[in-house]
Automatic annotation (TrEMBL), chain A:
<feature type="transmembrane region" description="Helical">
    <location>
        <begin position="189"/>
        <end position="209"/>
    </location>
</feature>
<keyword id="KW-1133">Transmembrane helix</keyword>
<feature type="transmembrane region" description="Helical">
    <location>
        <begin position="216"/>
        <end position="234"/>
    </location>
</feature>
<feature type="transmembrane region" description="Helical">
    <location>
        <begin position="162"/>
        <end position="183"/>
    </location>
</feature>
<protein>
    <submittedName>
        <fullName>Uncharacterized protein</fullName>
    </submittedName>
</protein>
<feature type="transmembrane region" description="Helical">
    <location>
        <begin position="93"/>
        <end position="114"/>
    </location>
</feature>
<keyword id="KW-0805">Transcription regulation</keyword>
TrEMBL record, chain B:
<dbReference type="InterPro" id="IPR027417">
    <property type="entry name" value="P-loop_NTPase"/>
</dbReference>
<keyword id="KW-0547">Nucleotide-binding</keyword>
<dbReference type="InterPro" id="IPR003593">
    <property type="entry name" value="AAA+_ATPase"/>
</dbReference>
<dbReference type="Pfam" id="PF00005">
    <property type="entry name" value="ABC_tran"/>
</dbReference>
<keyword id="KW-0813">Transport</keyword>
<dbReference type="InterPro" id="IPR017871">
    <property type="entry name" value="ABC_transporter-like_CS"/>
</dbReference>
<dbReference type="GO" id="GO:0005524">
    <property type="term" value="F:ATP binding"/>
</dbReference>
From TrEMBL, chain C:
<feature type="domain" description="RNA polymerase sigma factor 70 region 4 type 2">
    <location>
        <begin position="139"/>
        <end position="186"/>
    </location>
</feature>
<dbReference type="Pfam" id="PF04542">
    <property type="entry name" value="Sigma70_r2"/>
</dbReference>
<dbReference type="InterPro" id="IPR039425">
    <property type="entry name" value="RNA_pol_sigma-70-like"/>
</dbReference>
<protein>
    <submittedName>
        <fullName>RNA polymerase sigma-70 factor (ECF subfamily)</fullName>
    </submittedName>
</protein>
<dbReference type="InterPro" id="IPR007627">
    <property type="entry name" value="RNA_pol_sigma70_r2"/>
</dbReference>
<dbReference type="InterPro" id="IPR013324">
    <property type="entry name" value="RNA_pol_sigma_r3/r4-like"/>
</dbReference>
<dbReference type="Pfam" id="PF08281">
    <property type="entry name" value="Sigma70_r4_2"/>
</dbReference>
Amino acid sequence: MTTDWHLDPGLLEQYETGVLGPSRIMAVEAHLLACAGCRALIPADDAWLADSWSAVYDDIHAPRVGSIQRLLTRAGLPEHRFRLLTATPTLRWSWVLATAAVLMLAVAAARVGADSSVPIAQAFLVLAPILPVIAVSGAYGPPADPMHEITGTTPAAGPALVLWRAVSVIGVAVLMATVAAVLLPGPGWYAAAWLLPALLLCTGTLALATVLSLPVAAGILGGLWITGVLAAASDERAVASMFGPTAQLAYLVSAVLAAAVLILRRRRFDLGENR
Amino acid sequence: MTIVAVQGLAKRYGATVALDFVDMEITVGVTGLLGPNGAGKSTLLRCLATALAPDAGTIRVGGLDPAVAAQRTEVRRRIGYLPQNPGLYPNFTTYDLLDYVAVLKEITDGRQRRAEVRRVLDEVELTDRAKTKVRKLSGGMRQRLGLAQALLGDPALVVLDEPTVGLDPEQRMLFRALISRLGERRTVLLSTHQTEDVGALCERVVVMSGGRVVFEGSPRELAGVAEGQVWLSEQPPVGNAAYWRNADGFYRTIGHQPAGAEAARPSIEDGYLLLLGNAVTTGATR
Amino acid sequence: MRRRRQRPIPPVSEQSSDAELLHAIAAGETSALRLLHHRHAGWLRARLRRRCADPDVVDAAIQDTFVAVWKDSDRYVETSADAAAWLWTIAVRRLLSTLRGPAHRWLSGPADELPDVATTPSAEELVLLGVEHGALGPALDRLSPELRRLIEATALDGLSVREAAKLLGIAEGTAKTRLMRARTRLRELLT
């Protein structure tokens, strides 16, 4: 669109200060819309432009707030802590989906083979405590976290970060296993009987990780548990006694002991600490 | 002003000695840590960055002692560290990765963090790559991203482990410009095995070999080590001194003067090679 | 997730046209959005300030405008309207929705962030371009303020009669009648 008439700085200044008559204002505005040259005449306020652009830039780049985050924020989890937890190596969709798939398979197998469901349900019972341990093994440090050298040299590094991450992955794993346990056919107490062994294995792993690396600690305790279970597998009564009241009490006491060790030695989670 | 002071630092892995009682001091500006592979450069940098605890010796960063747990966090607040293998999450976008590291660096306020991420992106010229996933970045861009995360929180000391390795000439030039800009008001310590980097960037150079510091001084002083020991001749020198033919067709010898050879201006590399004792096959300098 | 164009986008610069910038924005180029912002934010701000005295509200509307452009630039690529007019339409709607608060999101609900229709200048707007020379200027000045405001909202700001009616706080029917009256009156004044 061309027109012979153009704006001049004087007219623009009058427009901006608001001293023009109504028709002149409309004329200026109509012309501005049509003429790129006159638009460029409006003096640029560089500081304002930079601020405005920064706000736009931040807005289009800031990570989107998802529904899970909104839920956790409402529950009192600060946004920055959520960022830390989502970067937990094992707290990825791939891991969550794999765990969920294993659990669903177990439930499906138990439901289809209704007659033989008791052994399958028992197998679930002995294997479920391992799931959170596997999750914990990759929650922090090498080799699960490729960025561990950067993570470990930031002010946030250390026991607090390890525990936050461990708790978050254990939480997710326990939640999923609980859902599966409820869906499982078999005696009602099965749904809860694995929780204390899982607690012991997790705190034990973390306590042992103050001496060894997390994956090694998880491997040792997970291995011990499986070996014990396999040794008892031939005898159905032995398996039942592994989840009996006496055994449960023993798990609880051991878990408390492991937690005490963990609290005393928590500083050893720091890479910069002498070992 | 001394920013980093290291005394009697020692570290061994099994039977391998990585650091053999190292003493050094680092001031504001760019300091290059030069040495062959296995000289202990990375181990030293990892100790300084608090990624590794030394077996013996003391480190002071701005007067603080990272061996004391209470002061270690304070040291970490003042250090930006780019490891040799940073392992940046490939599925994160440039922006999300920096946002994550900014949280690790205790920038908890969202608005402040976004401003800080924007600042470092601008500093390493990755502003327009904020939405790109790390795995889709070129090697040079990834290295700049690694530098950007080190700069989050505006640390007084920036520790870079082999930052120019594997970069093409253009990227290398851009990276050098970035680092020299950093050195204007910060302390930058970078390791390299390229003497060109040292000549182009560093005000001071520390040469390491076999876990020890064998030289500390300016690049000019490093070249000066070979003063009077570099020779050019038209014929290959007799004997078994190390020599090579340069682009002009002359034979360049480091060590004793071969017959009919003229003295040449030593380069940083001459000084470096001489220090490492690799320049001369027989004990010309020993 | 927004659709990204598969074809490689040529690099953008200060010299790129608005349409080229918007194509690059649709392909996810932040640098193109920055260029577009730097080119248009200034005059948008000057003009929005004539509509709203609160600088914070104006600044927020401008930020919202460019965020909306980033999220929905495909819509522009499809309509290929004049970029300046398109930006203005977004900006003025953003300003109105900010002014009226979250309870009155009618002007730009999340469902239609950007106007789909090609915003070509209306007949009145073309006449307005001649305001400086012809008899239209005095005619507009002599128009009653409420009629003039309606002309301004529809012809200049590119709002629909319905939007203009809500902006001025009158019924849609009233707005239609008034607009008709304004046109007749203008014609009278011009002859």
